[in-house]
Design brief:
By secondary structure, the chain is mainly beta. The protein contains three helices and 17 strands. The strands form four sheets. An eight-stranded antiparallel β-barrel has the order 3-4-5-7-8-10-12-17. A hairpin with a 2-residue loop joins strand 13 and strand 14. The protein is globular.
Length: 332
């Protein structure tokens, strides 16, 4: 079993603890009392207070979770409520997004696309990682996010200049933005650069789908289980209501984003979003698009609504929920 000692997160008397009876991990803030309540700032602690006999610093992963996806890695390497892969410091936790559900645009919620994305998360072919820094106190936070490669030892590493063709090889590189944390809830500002996240093909030597998230913003995310989880794993799926994101899908960027289901079945993401398949959206007059864009992006920002879908709008607004699991993030 992978073990790691992790430091104390302290605002007030922040401790990392485990409730062995309940199987829950705590990383709570605020003060704690003699009867073992968890304080005012965060998650569940143990059966005792900061000096009680029930409080134990967490030094190893909790029990394996047999409800975790059985594809890659096998369930014996995934632990706790959210199928965490490793323990991360609660001052600087790192997460792999384990599931995502889109509420807009409607095409992204289509069962065909939703099924591909769900399978790719479970199979470690969509490895979207979010790393937080500066979470030891309420206030400013640094959020870094982007595609990461999974190493042979199960750790993850942000990619650098290695995006598959066609396109800019740096488009999968991580982006860093300011954020804020209050207690166990955090959020981020919108990214200036597009965050392009791929779904790798079955051979993992290229991508089958790439989603270019423009002005990506983590609206809110609730940390739990000692800051090792966002949401949890149910019997057959992960919950996605503990975190939410907003972004925009730029028409021009989606024209350049290929969806390669099979060698004989390829089209652009724009064609999928606009409803022009099998014809390329670039070859179809905007007035004939079944699902035209609803937002306007300029050089610095994007706004939903307030534009004519045929003549002015140049992006689709995107909203969704997500769940995430702790992973070990390494640097080169």
């Amino acid at each position: 079993m992978h073990t790691e000692n992790i430091g104390i997160c302290s605002w007030g008397a922040r401790l990392i603890a485990v409730a062995f009876v309940a199987g829950a991990i705590g990383c709570s803030g605020g003060s704690s009392d003699d009867n073992g309540s968890g304080g005012t700032g965060g998650g569940t602690t143990g059966t005792g207070g900061s000096s009680g006999s029930g409080m134990t610093k967490l030094t190893e992963l909790p029990s394996q979770n047999t409800d975790c996806p059985d594809t890659s890695p096998p369930p014996t390497e995934q632990y706790g409520a959210c199928c965490m892969r490793a323990l991360t410091s609660c001052e600087a936790p790192a997460f792999r997004i384990s599931a995502m559900s889109f509420t807009k645009p409607a095409t992204m919620a289509d069962p065909f696309i939703a099924g591909i994305i769900a399978e790719s998360f479970d199979d470690d072919r969509m490895n979207w990682v979010v790393a937080l820094e500066g979470a030891e106190d309420d206030g400013p936070l640094t959020v870094t996010t982007g595609h990461a490669d999974r190493n042979s030892d199960g750790s993850f590493q942000f990619t650098s200049g290695a995006a598959s063709a066609p396109g800019d090889p740096t488009r999968w590189d991580p982006r860093t933005v300011p954020g804020t944390i209050t207690g166990e809830q955090w959020s981020s500002e919108a990214t200036d650069e597009t965050v392009a996240v791929p779904v790798l093909n079955q051979q993992r030597d290229g991508h089958m789908i790439e989603i270019p998230f423009r002005r990506l913003r983590f609206e809110t995310a609730q940390l739990s289980v000692g800051r090792q989880c966002i949401g949890e794993r149910r019997i057959t799926s992960f919950t996605t209501d503990a975190g939410s994101v907003r972004a925009f899908l730029d028409v021009d960027e989606t024209i350049g984003a290929l969806v390669m289901i099979t060698p004989a079945l390829q089209f652009t993401l724009c064609s999928l979003l606009a409803g022009t398949n099998p014809m390329d959206c670039a070859d179809v007059p905007r007035s004939m698009w079944q699902k035209p864009p609803d937002s306007l992006c300029d050089g610095t920002d994007c706004t939903e609504g307030g534009c004519d879908p045929v003549t002015e709008c140049n992006a689709w607004a995107l909203e969704g929920g997500f769940g995430a699991q702790a992973v070990e993030l390494v640097t080169p």
